[in-house]
Design goal:
By secondary structure, the protein is of the alpha/beta class. It has two domains: 273 residues, Aminopeptidase, CATH 3.40.630.10; 172 residues, Glucose Oxidase, domain 1, CATH 3.50.30. Helix content is 35%, strand content 24%. It is built from 13 helices and 22 strands. The strands form four sheets. Strands 1, 2, 14, 15, 18, 19, 20, 21 and 22 form a nine-stranded mixed β-sheet that branches. Strands 3, 4, 5, 6, 9, 10, 11, 12 and 13 form a nine-stranded mixed β-sheet that branches. It has a two-stranded antiparallel ribbon with strand order 7-8. A hairpin with a 4-residue loop joins strand 7 and strand 8. The longest helix has 39 residues. It is elongated. The N and C termini lie far apart (59 Å). The structure holds zinc ion. Zinc ion binds next to helix 8.
C-alpha cells in the first residue's frame, strides 16, 4: 500500500524538513569529501618527502667530485648539470628558452696550495697552521711577500666623511693588518654613506692604491667575495694570531678595536722586528662563466599560470684550498636539497599548482651575489607577475624555522603558518622585511630591491656546531629531520600560495 504525501499536513511538514536536512547534509558531506580528497592528495605527496632522499642530495652536492662548487669552476658547472638532470627526471621544464641554464660572467681564482704564513718577532719564528691559525686568501695573487706590518683598522679612506684609516701611517711595501666592516654599523640612513666602503673589494683596492704589498685579514674564513689584484698577496688570520701580534707590539687588540668603533682611526706601524711572510699559490680565471639552474612547473590555471612563485637558493660553495675541500654542506647544499625535495613533490603532486612555480638554483652567491643580480637584470618572468620569491640559505641544522619577511607579507605567509601549525609543528618565528642600509648580503635582498616580495627561510636552534665557510661544513653537521620538514613546509606553503585565488 502506498501512502500519499500531503506536505501541507502537519505530519508531513516534519517529513519535508527531514528531507531538506538530509539533502543539505549530503551537500556538506560531498563538499567536505572533495576538500578531504584534496587534502589526501596533498598529504600523499607530503609524506613522500623523506629525509633519507634529501640527505642523498646533500651528500651528492657535498661530495669531492664537485670540489666545493666554487662558482665559475668546471666542477660547479657539473653540479649544476646534476641538478638539471634531476629536474628533467621529474618532468620539470627548462625555464630559459628550452635550457635549464642561465649563464653569466663569473671570474674566480683557484687556490692551488695552502701556501704558508710565518710570523717573525725578532728571532722568534712562528709557522701558522691551517685551518687553526690562517686560511689562504681566496683571490690572493700568487707569489711570496715578507714585510713589516701596519695596522690600518677598516682600511677606509672617505674624505667626504672626514675619515681616513691611512692618514697617519705609511704602508708602502708593507703588509697591512685589516679589519672587515665599517666603523658605523647601526642599520639606519647614516649607514648608507658607509656602505660603499664596506665591500672587501673596495678595501683591497684602497690598500693597493696606498702601496701595500700584502695583507693579513683579521677574519678567518674562506671568502671568494673579494677581488684578484695583480701582485697583492694576502691571507686570513684567526683573531688569536692578531692578538699575539698586538701583544708583542705592546698593544691591546680589544682596546684598539674600541677606538676603531669610536672612529678614532687608531692605525699604527708595528716595530720593524715584527714581520710576516706569506706564500700563496693561486690561478686566476678572469673569463670564467657560471650559471643559474632554472626549472619550472607551468601553472594549471589558464589565467593564473602567467603569475609565478620563485623558489631559490645558492648552489655554489666555497670551493677548495689545495687538497682541502670545503663541502659547503650547510651553506648551502642543505637549501638546494630542500628545494629539490619540494620540486620533486610539486612536480608529482596530484593537486596541481594553479600559478607557475620557478626553481632557481643560483650561482655566484659567494663571489658577490652574481647569480641573483644576473637574474634580476634578466628575469625570465615579468617582475610584476612574480608574486613571491622564497630564498633558502643554510636550512639544514636545528629544530626551528625562521622566516624573514613573514611579518610583512602576512597573507602570503599565512599559507606557511597553516602548513606548519597543521602538519609540521615546528617552532617558526618570523620578522618583517627590514630595509638594509648596509652591504647586501643575501640573494633575497637583490630580489627585494627590484620590488619582488621575498621570504628568507633558514633554520634555527642549531643542533651541531656551525662551521661557517670552513672545511668542517660537511653533511655530518646536517639535521635530516629539519631538512625533511623544510621541504614539506615549502611544498605545502607554495601550493597554498599558488592556489590562493584571493591573492
Ligand atoms: Zn650561503
Amino acid at each position: 500500500m502506498s501512502k500519499n504525501y500531503n506536505f501541507n499536513d502537519p505530519e508531513n511538514l516534519m517529513m519535508r524538513v527531514t528531507i531538506l536536512y538530509v539533502l543539505l547534509m549530503a551537500a556538506i558531506t560531498l563538499n567536505a569529501l572533495a576538500q578531504q580528497s584534496n587534502k589526501d592528495l596533498q598529504l600523499k605527496t607530503f609524506h613522500s618527502i623523506s629525509s633519507n632522499q634529501l640527505m642523498e642530495y646533500a651528500a651528492e652536492l657535498s661530495s669531492n667530485k664537485y670540489e666545493g662548487r666554487l662558482s665559475g669552476t668546471p666542477e660547479y658547472l657539473e653540479a649544476a648539470k646534476w641538478c638539471a638532470s634531476k629536474f628533467e627526471e621529474w618532468g620539470i621544464q627548462p625555464a630559459n628558452n628550452g635550457s635549464y641554464f642561465q649563464y653569466f660572467p663569473n671570474e674566480y681564482s683557484e687556490v692551488k696550495a695552502l701556501g704558508s704564513v710565518v710570523y717573525f718577532n725578532g728571532d722568534e719564528k712562528t709557522y701558522l697552521d691551517f685551518p687553526e691559525d690562517y686560511f689562504p686568501g681566496s683571490n690572493s695573487a700568487s707569489g711570496t711577500v715578507q714585510a713589516e706590518l701596519v695596522y690600518v683598522g677598516h682600511g677606509i679612506t672617505a674624505p667626504e666623511l672626514d675619515y681616513d684609516d691611512y692618514k697617519n701611517v705609511d704602508v708602502k711595501g708593507k703588509i697591512i693588518i685589516l679589519e672587515s666592516g665599517t666603523p658605523y654599523t647601526k642599520n639606519d640612513e647614516t649607514l648608507a654613506k658607509w656602505t660603499p666602503y664596506a665591500y672587501h673589494r673596495y678595501k683591497f683596492r684602497n690598500a693597493v692604491k696606498h702601496g701595500a704589498a700584502g695583507m693579513i685579514y683579521v677574519s678567518k674564513l674562506a671568502n671568494p667575495n673579494t677581488v684578484n689584484l695583480e701582485g697583492f698577496i694576502y691571507a686570513h688570520v684567526d683573531i688569536k694570531v692578531a692578538e699575539k701580534i698586538f701583544t708583542d707590539a705592546g698593544k691591546d687588540l680589544i682596546e684598539v678595536r674600541k677606538q676603531l668603533k669610536d672612529m678614532e682611526t687608531p692605525s699604527f706601524e708595528l716595530p720593524t722586528e715584527q714581520q710576516v711572510f706569506i706564500r700563496a699559490e693561486t690561478k686566476y680565471f678572469p673569463e670564467a662563466q657560471a650559471c643559474n639552474v632554472v626549472g619550472m612547473i607551468e601553472g594549471s590555471d589558464p589565467e593564473l599560470k602567467d603569475e609565478v612563485i620563485i623558489i631559490g637558493g645558492h648552489l655554489d660553495g666555497q670551493g677548495k684550498m689545495g687538497d682541502v675541500i670545503f663541502p659547503s654542506a650547510l651553506d648551502n647544499a642543505s637549501g638546494i636539497s630542500d628545494i629539490l625535495g619540494a620540486a620533486k613533490a610539486l612536480a608529482s603532486s596530484e593537486e596541481k599548482p594553479k600559478r607557475s612555480v620557478l626553481f632557481i638554483l643560483l650561482g655566484g652567491e659567494e663571489c658577490g651575489l652574481y647569480g641573483s643580480k644576473y637574474y634580476c637584470e634578466n628575469p625570465l618572468f615579468p617582475v610584476e607577475k612574480t608574486k613571491l620569491m622564497i630564498n633558502l640559505d643554510m636550512v639544514g641544522n636545528g629544530t626551528g624555522f625562521f622566516v624573514s619577511g613573514g611579518k610583512t607579507h602576512t597573507k602570503l605567509f599565512s599559507h606557511f603558518e597553516t602548513a606548519n601549525n597543521t602538519f609540521i609543528h615546528r617552532e617558526m618565528q618570523a620578522s618583517a622585511v627590514q630595509k638594509n642600509y648596509g652591504r647586501p648580503r643575501s640573494d633575497a635582498s637583490v630580489f627585494e630591491d627590484i620590488g619582488i616580495n621575498t621570504f628568507s627561510l633558514w633554520t634555527r636552534n642549531s643542533v651541531y656546531p656551525v662551521y661557517y665557510h670552513h672545511p668542517m661544513d660537511k653533511t655530518n653537521v646536517l639535521t635530516p629531520e629539519i631538512m625533511e620538514d623544510a621541504a614539506k613546509l615549502l611544498y605545502l606553503g607554495v601550493l597554498g600560495v599558488a592556489n590562493d585565488t584571493k591573492l
